[in-house]
Amino acid sequence: MWRRRLSPPSLRWLYPGMRVKRFALLALLGVLLFGLGLAELLPSLGLQGPWPWGLLLGGLFLGVLGIWAMNRSMLSAFTEPEEVPERVYVRRRLEQGPKVVAFGGGTGLSRILRGLKEHTARTTALVAVTDDGGSTGRLRLSYGLPAVGDLVDCLAALSDHSALPELLAHRFDRGELRGHTFGNLFLVTLFEVAGDFAEAVREANAILNLRGQALPATPEAVRLRARFQDGAEVVGEVAIRERRGRIREVFLEPEPEEVMPEALEAIARAELLVLGPGSLYTSVIPSFLPKPLKKALQEAKAPLVYVVNLMTEPGETDGYTAYEHYKAVAYHLGRRPEVVLVHTAPIPEEVLGRYAAEGRYPVPFDPRPFAADGVRVLTGDFREEGPLAQHDPKKVVQALLSLV
């Protein structure tokens, strides 16, 4: 019964078994001894004997020992005390990093986020939510919410916990959950509980302890519409890729009225704005199509960088050059990126052969049209070593942060 009377949280330190009171008393004893030694020492500096110094040193030792042991005891309830100094150092260092806002979706954006989180904890990812394939597509139909797949990937990429990406990416392979990932179901569960997608995303950011934040381009359920050069219009990312052909422009349907205020605040305060990498028409451009985001980007003072894909996308950017990628971004945004990052190093033949079998080829680069437009181009080797043609997060982030 007495525990119920100690209901205020500040008094719960007095509960049995907290392993705090004993060390607090030890620290108090140290303070008392230090005080007694000081009281004896100050009136007479002649020092009749060594005992005032003994009280001072003994009290100081016990006080420091008590405080150290009390902190260690409290920290052990949450983590290994030995890890705390490193974690605090890393967190404080990252909190002083640059403010970066990155737009996109899919694998490309999440890879860049994994590189950014090693340099700053002030990254905001604004993620396209128009995907309608796979697990995400099924959940959209069932719950009438925005696409969650790419958003979950970005949440995992920014997490401070090393095991979380694998957990969120776990895909069920049997029963009614077959094909769904744990991360998708986790976000849908938060949506069901909160009753509001924006609030569900805020809860996910808080629960997952991110180095930054990952937000949807809009919390509304929208789809992507593409108008092709021949005048045909197609709705849905999957249908757009399957239709193939040159795309003239893309739209969101219906036009979203809402964006999260955190997104607009992040853009206004950004020191660097990054578009991509990712699928041009189905990831990068949809991430900034909501009108409030587009307006904020047009008015932002921070430099805008576009990271061009290494390879073309079948049914989406077949035959596109790096300059055509850049022009499509500038057309849809109403602002030209000041800097374009392009991979120009050779790609191994075995990698090229594997991608050619899928109808994917290196994006051609010619510096002359960029120079004519007055656009700065960062060229070099930005590919990650291995069997795939993917951007290396460390190389790309190093180049991006050199602009801040």
From TrEMBL:
Signal sequence coordinates: none
Main location: cytoplasm
InterPro entries, sorted: CofD, CofD-like_dom_sf, Gluconeogen_factor
Keyword Transmembrane (UniProt): yes
Keyword entries, A-Z: Cytoplasm, Membrane, Transmembrane, Transmembrane helix
Entry's transmembrane regions: 49-70
Cited SUPFAM superfamilies: CofD-like (SSF142338)
Pfam families: CofD
Subcellular location(s) of the protein: Cytoplasm
Function per UniProt: Required for morphogenesis under gluconeogenic growth conditions.
Family annotation (PANTHER family): GLUCONEOGENESIS FACTOR-RELATED (PTHR30135:SF3), UNCHARACTERIZED PROTEIN YVCK-RELATED (PTHR30135)
Family: Belongs to the gluconeogenesis factor family.
Stored HAMAP family: Gluconeogen_factor (MF_00973)
Protein name per its UniProtKB record: Putative gluconeogenesis factor
Organism name: Thermus brockianus
Lineage: Bacteria, Thermotogati, Deinococcota, Deinococci, Thermales
